[in-house]
Amino acid sequence: MRVETLGGAAALTVSARDTKAFRRARMVRDPLILLRLVLAYCLGDHSLRLTAAMGLAHLSNVGLLYRLQQCDAWLRSTWWVRCWPAACRGSARAA
Fold this sequence. Notes:
By secondary structure, this protein is an all-alpha fold. It has one domain. It has 7 helices and no strands. The protein is globular. The two termini are about 20 Å apart. About 20% of the residues are buried. The model has no long low-confidence stretch (mean pLDDT about 80).
């Protein structure tokens, strides 16, 4: 998935900050990295520990779980999540 398809990096950053999914750059550098972590965990076949160890951010599995929980409103507000086929939404694991 290309970032431009989702409205661009600036739009993703604004929406992530507005919904408080991304508050400050510490262990996760920017909202695009956070989005990659969300997609890697929800659509991949990895545990929290393996997803956290992928090297995208310096997080523990508990830190990743907390950030995934904070992403709920952000993901629900984006048009591309509403456009996913029902089969994909049903197979994705809830954080």
